[in-house]
Each structure stands twice: as C-alpha cells, then as structure tokens.
## 1
Amino acid sequence: MSDRNHMHQNVDQNRGDDGNINAYRRQFMASVVGISGVATVATIAPGIILQQAQAKPADEMVTNKVRWGLLIDTSRLTDGGDACVEACKKEHGWGNEKLSNKEQDAQWIRKVKVTEKMTGHVTSLPVMCQHCDTAPCVDVCPTGASMKRADGIVLVNKHICIGCRYCMMACPYKARSFVHETLTDQRPYSPRGRGVVESCNMCVHRVDAGKKPACVEAAPEAILFGDLNDKESDISKALKEFGGTQIRADLGLNTGVRYRGI
C-alpha cells in the first residue's frame, strides 16, 4: 500500500525552509474554492457489517475482514485517562513543543471531564479520533488525505494534506489538530510536519506489527483492543455482554471506539 509507505518519510521534506504551504497547495485550494465556493458534506448513514476474520500476516494487504476497535471502561480508569495521554505523547512525540501559543497544542488524545448536572457526579475519560465507519473527515477532504483503511483505521496522509482544515470543522469530536509551527524530534514511524492536520491513528504502526496501541498498554485493565468483526474476540464478547456507548451516537457514525460508564 504505497500511501502507507510514503507516510514513513519526513513530512517537511516537500516544504520550503520557512515551512509555509507550497505553491501547489495554494493553487489547488484556489481551484477548489473557485469551483464549489463551499465545502460539501456527504450524507451520513449508519451501518454495521460483521464478518469472520483472522489475523493478518505481515506480508498481506489490509482487508475489511478485520475492523479494529477500542472499548474503554471509564470506571476502571483510576486516573481518568492521564496514563493514556502520556503514553500517546511518548509514542508519537507530541506535547513537548515550545509553542508561541499554547492553544495550538496537539490533541491526539485528551482527557475530558463530564459532570452530571443533577448529581454533580464527574466522569473522566480519554477522547481521541473515534475511527468512524462513516467518517465526516473523510467525506469533506478535497484531496483524499483524510482516509479510512479497509480495517477501519482513520488516517491522514500528510504528504497530500493541504492544510485546509475542513476535516477539523467536520469532526464532531474535536479530535484533530493543525500543526502551526516547525517541529523537531520526529518519530520515523509517526511523521509530523508544519502546515498539516494530525490525529490519533490508533498506533497503526504497532497494530500492523501485531501489537496493541500505546494507550491500551498504558491502561490494560480499562481498555480492550480487538477485532469488532470477530464475534469471538474479547472486545466483541464484552460489547455483547455489557454493551458499549458511542459518543454522539445520534450522528450514526458507527464509531470504532466505544465506552462503558458514561
């Protein structure tokens, strides 16, 4: 899969020294706006397809036999998700930037507190890209940089991202960030660069190597990772027995991340 291979290179190599979006990007966006005037959002329709699946050998292409997902039990998150956030920062090298404006911080995953108005009960949970089956970010992307793999993982191809930020506006979970300033300390397996959008990629480099995402390893007692298409997987059995809640289920996005205790 060529797009995945290209993503392992440094994103900034096609930019000028000043890190500005190149002339091609400006020209492309001018043509898009000139033709359409506005960005259009495709109709969102829910749907769940369950199939039997087996583990993918390393030399086999990604297929839709598998759909990766997470089940997060907030009642078992003793720190409310702090360990998950820190593990993600360490794995992907974000959160340590010296930014001129702290409001520009990356948010691949963030800790959210929800307070019930009547009782005052507070629930804390980690929120990241929800890896929607029908992903609004993919629908609105003019270049195809926002994409969903056959196995359900939503990614950003940063080589063709033009920084329009349509996907950020479309995401109902505020799960995406825009890189405003030049970055250092790049991870070869998780490239980042100025002028593009980024978000949780479910640690795709780990998943493809047969490992679990970093946040799952940081909170194994609270987070299940597995194949939603496999009825015999631990995550599918837990969802069948205990259920799981989607954030903004009313949108019908069929998220790959589910929660208990919210």
Note: The chain has a mean pLDDT of 82.
## 2
Amino acid sequence: MVSYRRRAGIGDNSGMPLSPTAKAQLQIHFCVLLWGFTAILGKMITLPALPLVWWRMLLVVATLAVLPSVWRGLRAMPARTLLAYSGIGALVALHWLTFYGAVKLANASVAATCIALAPAFTSVVEPWLTRRPFSMRELAFGLAVLPGVALVVGGVPHGMRMGIAIGALSALLVALFGSLNKRMVDGGDPLTITAVELGAGTLLLTLLAPLMPMLFPAFSGDLLLVPSLRDALLLLALSLLCTLLPFALSLVALRHLSAYGVQLVTNLEPVYAIVLAMVLLGEQRELTPLFYLGVAIILAAVFLHPLLNRNKPLQHAEILATSEAKRVE
C-alpha cells in the first residue's frame, strides 16, 4: 500500500527526497513563522522605535552590501529607477517606524492585527496609484473588515488605542509602497531593490532623528547609542534571522509556488504573531475576547482576499523583505 507520505509527495521512510513543491511549501511556512517573530522581537527589544528600525535597516543593508550581485544590479539600474526606488524606500522606513511604534505603544498582537488591514487599504489605494479601474469586489472586501476593526478597538485598553491608530497608518503605508512597487515593472533584481529601498530608508531615518523629539517624542531615541548586548543580539536575530534568512528562502520557494498559494500561507503571519505573543509575552491578559473576535473577522476577510487574485502571477518579491504585510501578487 502506498503510504500517506508518498501520496502527499513529501517523501517516505526509505529516504525518498521531498518534491520541489513540497519542499517549497515547507520553506514558505518556515519563513512565515520567522516573520511572525518580528513583532515579538520588537516588543522584547528595549530601544525606542526609531533606533530599533534604524539598526534593523542598517544591518540588513550592510549584509546585502557584501553581495557582488547587489552591486552588479545597482550599476545596471538607471538613475531614474534608482531615484524611484529610493522614494519607495522612504515609505518603507516610515512603515517600519510606525509598525514598531504600534508595538511599543500597544503590544505585538495589536500591531500584527493592524498590519492585516493592509490588503483592505490596498483595494482603495492601488487602483488610484496604478490607474486601473476600481474593483467593486475588492472595495466590498475592504468594507468587510470594518466590523472587525470596531471590535478590535473596543477590545483593547484605552491606553493602547493610539497604538491602533499608528498601526493602521503603518498598514496604509504598506498599501502605498506596495502599489508603487507594482508600477515599477521589471525594475531590477529583488536583492538589489531591497538594498536600495532599505538604504534610502536608513538615510531618511538618519535625517529625521534630530527632528523626531519635536515631531513624535514617543518614537525618538539616540542613534549613536550602542545597544546593550541583549538588544544587540535581538537586533541581529530580527535583521538576519527574521528578515534576510526568510527573504532568501522565500525567493527560492517562489519558483515552485503560485501567487495564490504563497498569499494563503503568508496570510498566516498575524496568526503566528498573535499566538507567539500569547505564549511568549502573555498578551492575552491585556486584551478582551472582543479583540480576538475582531481579529477573527479581519483574518477571515484577509484569507478570502487571495480568491480575488487567484490567477495573478508572482510579482514584486522584494515586498517579502520590506513589508510586515507580505503581498507578492
């Protein structure tokens, strides 16, 4: 009798290797699990949002800078394209700043839930930026998350509601830079694009640092202050293990998976983040059942969203490295 493992295409006890598709599915699930840790690490790192994001971006860019393929891609990139990706990188920096600001002002569960709103914002923003007709189905999807948002707001302590507002702004920024990336068809290699966007974002945060105490004191912090050993190790884990490693693995996995399949799996990221926050941080003690009911409504809509784009090809893999809300179609 053929075993279940063989029928599932995932090998058997005789040592049969995994099929490329099964291996890719395992890889993308592992990537999503690692991405789920980004909010958790953001809560565990004691640095304010600004230096946290600055160090994360700097470490990723420094690592990418040692790759010869990144420099080859950079030399081949036209100046106009380079400038466009640099502008998108500024939005990426603001997205990460507001995402980790939401983590600090509320908690990891709230920030992860807010970032799940990105597809709803995209349904409104993308047609405007890409000059395509509005889809009534996508607009209906965007409206479907509103009851969940209302429950989430009602299910958190009053002191966390600023974190929800900042988290929603972070999701809007995902919609903006994700839609702008879609206008940059065949702009270059994903690793090079990521290096350009995060390099520009690092520069923007460096310029904003002196102004941040006046603009948003809750986010500000000294960029030149060397992190403690604990924070330094967590920053390395955030930058290398939860950003670059899953990015590299996901680029390999994308060769064997459809956009629909990838999006279904990556939609699990807030689920992983919320479960990890409960297990590692005990955040369920800070939140009410209304919050989790709202989360369920939002995630139900998010999981339905790939059905609207089931036949679209995979595009813009760089978003897997630059966004907490991964949308590659």
Note: The radius of gyration is 20 Å.
## 3
Amino acid sequence: MILLIIIIIFSIHFTYQKHIQDKGKSAPIISEIKEQLDQAKALQKQGKLLESAEVFEQFALQGYPEAMFYLAKAYEKGWGVPPNLEKARSYLLNAIIYDFSYRGESAYLLGRLFQKSSGPNCNTIAVDWFRKALKWNYLKASLSLGIHFEKGLGVEKNVAQAIFYYEIANQAGIAIAALKHARLIALGQSTFPPDSEYAQALVDNAIMQLTREANGGKASAAKSLGRLYRGTRLVKGIIGKERQDKTIKWFRLGSELGDAGSMHDLAQYLLFIDDEKHQIEGLALFKKAADKGHGGAATALGRMHLKQLYGFNKKGAVFWFEKGVKAGHTGAFKELSVIYFEGNLIEKDLDKAIALVTKGANRGDSGSKRLLNKFLKKQRKIKNMQDKRINLRD
C-alpha cells in the first residue's frame, strides 16, 4: 500500500514537471566542434587531463555549453587545471542558460558546489538547484533532496518528503536511496507505520545492485557496501567475523579502485578493530586519502597529532587541519579555529578563529555554533576593555 501511494505521487510529480520545465536558449550545434569535444572527452578518459582541459576551455570561451560543463567539472576535480570552485560555478551558471543534454546535471553540480560552500544560505541555494536538476530530469538530484529533507538542511525537516524523494531515486535505480528509504520505513521514522517487509525488499535489491556495480569496478558501490555491513541494522543474519570480513573486503576494493572515502573508512575501521595490528596500514591509508583531498582523513590525522597518538607530534596537527580546511571539512574548521583561539601551537588570532568557526556554523554544525558564540563573546569583551582604556586616556 505504501509503495503504491508513493508510485502514484511519483507519477503525478513527473506529469506536472513536464508542463513547467524552463526553456533554455538553443545550444549551438556544429558537427566539427562536437567531434573535437568528443575527442577531448576521450583524452580525459585516457588520463590526458591537461590536453582535454585546453580543448574544453577553447570552446567554452566560444559559448558552447557542453564545453562549459566539462571545463567546470575539470575545475571542480582539478583535472588538468588547478581546482577552482568559483570558476567551476561560473562556467556552470553560463552553461545552464542553454537547453542542452547536460543541463540537468549542470544544475545538480551547482547544488553540490553550494553544499561545499560555507555561506549562511548555501544549503538553501543547493536545494533550489537540486530541484531545478530534478525538474530537468536529472534524477540523481532526488537523492540529494531526500538527504536535505531528512536532515533539515536548508529546508524544514520533513521525513515524509525525504521518503518521497528517496523513492524517486530508488525507482531510477539509485541503490543508496533504497537503503536510506529502507532505514526510515524500517525504523518507523515516517508518517507511515514501520514496514519491515518492504524495507527488507529494498535492502536486498540494493545489495544485489551494489554488488554487481562494485564487481564491475565502481568504487562508490564498494564503499556503500562496506558502510552497509559496517554498522547498520539493515543487513540481517550476518554477524561477528563474517560481518567484519565483508566490511573490510568492500572497503578494500573501493580503496584499490582509488576511492578516497573508502581509504578513509577502511583506515578508520582497521584502527578501530585492532590499532596495534593495523597501525601501519591504517595510517598510510589516512595519509593517502588526505593527499587525494579527503577532508575527513586530514582532520582525523590532525586529531591524532593533537592527542599525540602513534608517536605523532602535537605541532603537526596544524598542517593536517589546514589540509582539512582546504577540502572544506567542517571538523577541520572547528579544530583549527580552537588552535587560533588558544594560540598554543600557532600565533593567537581571534579574527581567524572567528572566520573559521563561522564557516563551520554556516554549515549547520552545532559544535561550531557554540564555539562561535564563545569567540564572539570574547571579542566583545576585548573590545569593551579597549574602549575603556581609550576613555581613560581621554
């Protein structure tokens, strides 16, 4: 019954969307240029990132939206050009003016870029772009919308709405959405009563799909399987050593396929189950993930240095937290702000501390919000003391 209701809503949604799609400008189509863009895409797949970026830039500057889209991705990922999220955003904003095949995905990528930003309304703006992406039939955006509604990021928390979007993503074959959907309905966190039978069907189908994708070389699928076996109540009948082995197996595969998140998760898991036995491998994985731009791995290494674990020196924490800040990790903003506030490992700078923790607070982190209030109170106290000294001199 629940599934039937959701599918009906799903059908109505897309019937309605067909009537309200924004019409973009006609994209220029020249067969010779399309061939050159196809060659640039092939170069990118071959790892010739600089050469492909040069071709994309040439035609992006001439106003070809597909070139703008691929150049934006290059700037986001650092493929052949230095990573530059502002340039990525600028090219995507120019691309979506046009009605072309990657218009929906361009809106989705804009949403992702705003998720990574630290302004006060970035989550709200991200939701707006995800909605546009879905309106332009890029169904992966429905997973992001589900997460925003489930967690209340940029919108009012609404579990029923989250389930609605997760079901759209699930029907589009996005296995992660099925797992998120299953968790909500299995635990009775929706307006519907718990439905363990439907939840189990979702989980079983998701595991089959993720296994197929992981064995086919998709790193993110391997990572998702590792996380599924690591600590959820969704997998039934697998416990103890078997669960541990499956967790390590899938995280290791994701790591071997080059996924930084898998490296981070595998390192964290290995150190958790036996840090003495797995210390060398775990720390190497953390460093490799951090070097690939994983903010969580960099922050974890910074915290290890702060606690002087594994023979690390406290002063080394600053390097790793700065790396985490560069990657946009909320925990790194918070940790580095405290270091600037206290002035023990680095020159004390209250303004830098406030600027850093504000970024964490703008991303909705409650710990950062508490620190921000503390730092602002300190700033006001210092200003009042300075004002009193000035008045006394006068």
Note: Residues 146 and 162 are 4 Å apart (CA to CA).
